[in-house]
Amino acid sequence: MKTIIAWWADNHVAANLLMLGILLAGVIGYSKLERELFPTVQIPVMQVTVVWPGASPKDIEEQIVDRIEESLKDLENLDWVRSES
Q: Is pTM, for the whole model, over 0.70?
């Protein structure tokens, strides 16, 4: 009983038809591939940075961070908020 590699080596037509089928599948797959010059990318991260030189962490938290967190709580698809003062 011949091995499968020996069978493909003896049957050049079958090997060429398989190669043609693989190439044809690749060309069809490539032609259906979605391509964009500038694809839209949605990054699921948002960062807000506020600088207040000379303010204490308590002032920043009370007057800035709390207000930003209050305005962000109404946003849809917001999973969590992390604040640093």
A: no
Look up residue 42 and give its two tokens.
Answer: 């949605």
Distances (CA, A) of 6 to 16, 27, 42, 59, 69: 15, 28, 51, 80, 70
Instruction: Give 23-45 pLDDT, tens digit per residue.
Output: 999 999 999 998 888 888 888 77
59 in Cβ contact with 52 (< 8 Å): yes
> Which residue type is seen at 73?
K
Question: How far apart, in whole angstroms, are the C-alpha atoms of residue 17 and residue 24?
Answer: 10
Rounded Cα distance between 57 and 64, Å, is 10
